């Protein structure tokens, strides 16, 4: 299989910086991870515009070296950028802008929606000479992670295992690995992960219907496939914060942990909103699978502000991820997240879990060891309205309480 192509869009005024990036990309090319392409590879006598367009059409990743020269180049703005954005929209092309010189990039509408690589919100030109190469190496590493972690085997795609320090799964309730009647929802989560246009999935249902069990089962499937290209995996449950009367729910502990885990140099710096914004930027530097379980303690209860997030840091994080996210954020909650309702059907997919069908509920009771005919098990499911937790409690109660003890002499 040919190596994925990295297309570099740049102004000739910035050739020196482009050449420095190419040196680092070529180190990856030696390992047959990727192949970089820029217009210096066009031979004498070749149709240069056709060569550029053809290379954009086969690229897996596009690098935009943003500067005043880049933003004022007619060919870049009128030819290259529209085609790259079209491929991003329709084919999932990954676009990596890097701000190399001070310019008006924050005022450009199409560029504001794409997470750009900067150095503490400053362009690369603000760094000293030694730092420039350090940051170009970091940028090249991000590109490698985006397209270099997938390999092809005879059976289809396989993925390189993630190192343990890039996975944090402990802060989530454990559930049974057995799951019944949720095949469609598992398939919807698979499709959401593969769809570059889907940034957030919300699983909405009453307590006990099985949101956490569904998420955990899907996570097991993802783990068995080395997380299918995820570069970071973090799951966190807010259930431990409970809904004790008079207790103010807060996302402070989660945001402090996540900032440190993603490498923020000063997790305590700034307001809650600033922290949420920084965390969103760190999450988006990787293809992150972020699972937030039991969000309802941090939402307003039914009423005028139903579903609104109480915590400003979490509100900022989720709003930012809804607008741009190369990975996926999965949210389990009893209430629809009002803050992102305008994105539902676009970058946000909403899955409302129903109670179990009679067939699925009967399978669950049978798995729990409940004895009875198929019709009797279905009748029990109907009596419990197919509520998953109620069926588990029923099945646990109905299991034989005493078992014979066999002694070997």
Describe this entry's structure for a reader.
- This protein has 409 residues and is of the alpha/beta class.
- The protein has three domains: 5-148, Rossmann fold, CATH 3.40.50.10140; 163-352, P-loop containing nucleotide triphosphate hydrolases (Rossmann fold, 3-Layer(aba) Sandwich); 358-398.
- Helices cover 40% and strands 15% of the residues.
- It is built from 14 helices and twelve strands.
- The strands form three sheets. Strands 7-9-10-11-8-12 form a six-stranded parallel beta sheet, with helices on both faces. It has a four-stranded parallel beta sheet with strand order 2-1-3-4, with helices on both faces. A two-stranded antiparallel ribbon has the order 5-6.
- Helix 1 crosses helix 6, helix 9 (252-261) crosses helix 10 (272-283) and helix 12 packs parallel to helix 14 (388-398).
- The longest helix has 19 residues, at 129-147.
- It is elongated, with a radius of gyration of 25 Å.
Produce the secondary structure layout.
Elements: E1 5-9, H1 15-30, E2 35-37, H2 48-58, E3 61-66, H3 68-71, H4 74-91, E4 94-99, H5 109-112, H6 129-147, E5 150-153, E6 156-159, E7 167-171, H7 183-194, E8 200-204, H8 211-224, E9 232-237, H9 252-261, H10 272-283, E10 288-293, H11 312-323, E11 328-333, E12 348-352, H12 358-367, H13 374-383, H14 388-398
Parallel strand pairs: 1-2, 1-3, 3-4, 7-9, 8-11, 8-12, 9-10, 10-11
Antiparallel strand pairs: 5-6
Helix pairs in contact: 1-6, 2-4, 7-8, 9-10, 10-11, 12-13, 12-14
């Amino acid at each position: 299989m040919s190596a994925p192509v990295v297309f570099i869009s740049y102004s000739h005024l910035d050739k020196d910086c482009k050449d420095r990036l190419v040196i680092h990309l070529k180190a990856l090319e030696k390992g047959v991870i990727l192949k970089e392409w820029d217009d210096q590879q066009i031979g004498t006598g070749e149709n240069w515009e056709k060569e550029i367009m053809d290379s954009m059409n086969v690229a897996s990743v596009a690098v935009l070296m943003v500067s005043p020269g880049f933003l004022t180049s007619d060919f870049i703005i009128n030819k290259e950028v529209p085609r790259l954005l079209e491929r991003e929209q329709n084919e999932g092309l990954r676009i990596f802008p890097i701000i190399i010189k001070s310019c008006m990039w924050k005022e450009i509408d199409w560029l504001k929606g794409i997470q750009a690589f900067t150095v503490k919100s400053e362009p690369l030109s603000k760094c000293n000479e030694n730092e420039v190469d350090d940051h170009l190496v970091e940028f090249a590493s991000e590109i490698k992670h985006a397209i270099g972690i997938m390999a092809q085997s005879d059976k289809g795609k396989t993925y390189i295992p993630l190192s343990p320090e890039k996975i944090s799964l402990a802060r989530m309730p454990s559930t049974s690995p057995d799951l019944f009647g949720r095949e469609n929802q598992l398939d919807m989560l698979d499709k959401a992960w593969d769809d570059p246009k889907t940034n957030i999935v919300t699983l909405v249902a009453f307590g006990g219907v099985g949101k956490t069990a569904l998420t955990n089962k899907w996570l097991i499937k993802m783990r068995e496939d080395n997380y299918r290209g995820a570069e970071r995996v973090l799951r966190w449950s807010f259930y431990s914060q409970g809904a004790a009367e008079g207790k103010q729910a807060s996302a402070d502990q989660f945001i402090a942990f996540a900032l440190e885990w993603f490498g923020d140099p000063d997790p305590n710096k700034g307001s809650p909103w600033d922290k949420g914004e920084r965390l969103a930027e760190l999450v988006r530097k990787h293809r992150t699978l972020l699972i937030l379980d039991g969000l309802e303690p941090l939402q307003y209860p039914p009423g005028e502000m139903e579903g609104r997030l109480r915590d400003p840091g979490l509100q900022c994080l989720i709003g930012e991820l809804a607008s741009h996210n190369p990975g996926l954020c999965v949210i389990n909650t009893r209430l629809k997240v009002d803050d992102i309702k305008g994105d539902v059907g676009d970058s946000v997919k909403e899955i409302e879990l129903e109670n179990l069908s009679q067939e699925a509920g009967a399978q669950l009771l049978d798995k729990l060891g409940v004895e009875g005919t198929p019709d009797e098990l279905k009748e029990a499911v109907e009596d419990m309205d197919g509520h998953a937790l109620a069926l588990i409690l029923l099945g646990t109660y109905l299991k034989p309480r005493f078992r014979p003890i066999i002694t070997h002499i």
